[in-house]
Amino acid sequence: MSYPLALKFFQLAKDGGLMSQGFVWITAYSLTDIFDVVGSSALDVMGGVLGVEPYVRDTVKLQNFRQRWREKYRSENPGTSLTVPTVSGLYAYDTVRALALAAEMTEFVNSDFVLSETNNGSTDFDKISASKAAEKLRSAFLKISFMGMSGQFLIQDTQFQLVSTTYKIINVVGRERRTVGFWTPGFNISKSLEKKDDLDTIVWPGGGEKAPRGWLLPANKTLKIGVPVKPGFSSFIRNENGTLGGFCIEVFQEVIRLLPYEVPIRYEEFGDGKGESNGTYDELVYKVYLKEYDAVVGDITILANRSLYVDFTLPYTESGVHMLVPVRDQRQKTAWTFLQPLTSDLWLGTGAFFVLTGFIVWFIEHRTNKEFRGPPVSQIGSIFYFSFSTLIFAHRERIVNNLSRIAVVVWLFVVLILQQSYTASLSSILTVEQLQPTVTNLDEVIRKGANVGYLNDSFLPGLLKRLRINESKMIAFNSPVEYNDALSTGKVAVIVDEIPYLKVFLSKYCHNYTMVGPTYKFDGFGYAFPRGSPLTPEISRQILQFASSDKMAKLENLLYGDTACPDKDDSQTSSSLTLHSFHGLFIITGASSLLALILHVGITIYNHRHDLISGSSQRSWHEWFALVSKIFHEADGSNTPDKDEPVMTNVDRTIESPCSISNHIIGNFDSDTDMGSQLEGEGTPGRELSVQGPDPPSFAYMHSEG
């Protein structure tokens, strides 16, 4: 349109409110230079308008031309507002120059037009024939190419072409034009000609810097947002002195702030003014379909039947339905609780290894260590006393054999591990509650005929009916306090509700209840908008972005609490220790003890090999057994001296009384060997016999040099 008509058009648009916030105006180049032609009057009515114009490089040659043009134009047009030639004027100047250059090339002087001989045209032009000079001029004009004021001048296919097509993007801000970017074939829209970059800040009609959407709010109105009344679970929706808040409201406001344009909103409670809801959630959502609300914001569950008449955004909470049940301590503390840390097979296995280790130590020690000798009953007692006294590391018997020492050291290590494990397990049993859910699935509730609780004014009755719960067994509740009272008194066996509500409940009553059973799939909470609303995908994209932010995590911590309530499941129970848990330790101690026993037997047999070899062919198996028993049972005094008397030789013998000394002397020496030859030392056999100590006396044959 012409400049005067365009000026009138924008004046009417401004008067009609179409130049205010929420509107966008973009002009092609034919109107962008209206500011140069008309001046400030156009700037007054076109604030926030975006326009494009061809980009002309500002050269020294162009600057000189503008100066000459300004002086000439003002002298010819006094009082004009036009101060610089427009780009169209530069194009016209270059075109006339090209035509002049073509005329010089063809030496064109005057026209040689002649009338047509046919003279049957309908216009005067049809009566004129072609000029021969004009044909030469046209041919030369099409070949003209030079660097003009507007850039490279070139004619291609009879059309004027710019070799490099670049456009400036102009924004009218206040009473000035501002270049906010460019369009180039290489970078498309960019702030710079040299690299890809975002545009400068654009000021839109009305003065806002956020890009409005003309299709979003065609009447530029404020969105009327319906909000449910939720007196029970105020963490999601609450009204504090007329100001709406809560998790659902705060998330929505944060998402709205992320939009690249302004969306004016106004909340309106769907209540009766007395703190109660004015209808069901389905009725509230249906009012969006009836266009009474532009959207609904709250703890609105995304359901298939609701999506028939509204569009939901993506969910912004955890989805699904769970069961809430009480928990109780499954471990009963009795007089026999101390037996629970170990299973019966571990108790039996540990006892068997106590006896085995005690027997092996006794077997190795009793020949050389008189603390393990005595009457049979005393020796049996020593076996059990020594082995079980290792449990508290209080054994007093000396161990003199290295083999038995090895067996005892390994066994003490096993006892230490068993003792520490037993202590830890018993402490857990006595001090830690082993909480288990009273109900694990709805089938159990159905078999018992127990009542089931649910949140009032929700979709859960339909779900419970599909799960075969009798309607007479369903009881509705409104708040976490009512949930707690019903479960603690046994009014209901379980509460079936959505996970967000249950997590809020557990943040207050964590230690007495838990969520169990399968998760029934639902889509969680979403915001409802009219069908086909362009806001729905916009809000959904911003929900995805906001859900992964720290701000969302902080809002969830405020909703559910900072401390997560641990699940009560079988993994929390302190199970008894089994024999399999210590299988490796018992193999180690058993192998070391048996190895010590085998080595002891081998060494003992090797030391008495002469006794076993001599006369072996004449012995019966009874005699063999008696001989072996004698070797492994009789005391070997060579390594167990009495700590209260001096050691003289290795022939000490205990005798009953002083009067039988000679008999013992005679009876304790081999008849084929001189007594002195069995004693250590050189020279003649000893001549002195001494009797020392109290009853029973002992004697020693003394070797004398003099």
UniProtKB/TrEMBL annotation:
Membrane topology classification: Multi-pass membrane protein
PANTHER family for this protein: IONOTROPIC GLUTAMATE RECEPTOR
Cellular localization per UniProt: Membrane
Protein name: Ionotropic glutamate receptor C-terminal domain-containing protein
Annotated ranges, domain Ionotropic glutamate receptor C-terminal: 222-562
One GO CC term on file: membrane
Transmembrane segments: 346-364, 406-422, 582-606
The organism of origin for this protein: Arundo donax
Task of the protein: Glutamate-gated receptor that probably acts as a non-selective cation channel. May be involved in light-signal transduction and calcium homeostasis via the regulation of calcium influx into cells.
Subunit structure: May form heteromers.
Chain positions covered by the region annotation Disordered: 672-706
Pfam families: ANF_receptor, Lig_chan, Lig_chan-Glu_bd
Family of the protein in this entry: Belongs to the glutamate-gated ion channel (TC 1.A.10.1) family.
UniProt keyword Transmembrane helix present: yes
Keywords, sorted A to Z: Glycoprotein, Ion channel, Ion transport, Ligand-gated ion channel, Membrane, Receptor, Signal, Transmembrane, Transmembrane helix, Transport
Gene Ontology MF term list: ligand-gated monoatomic ion channel activity
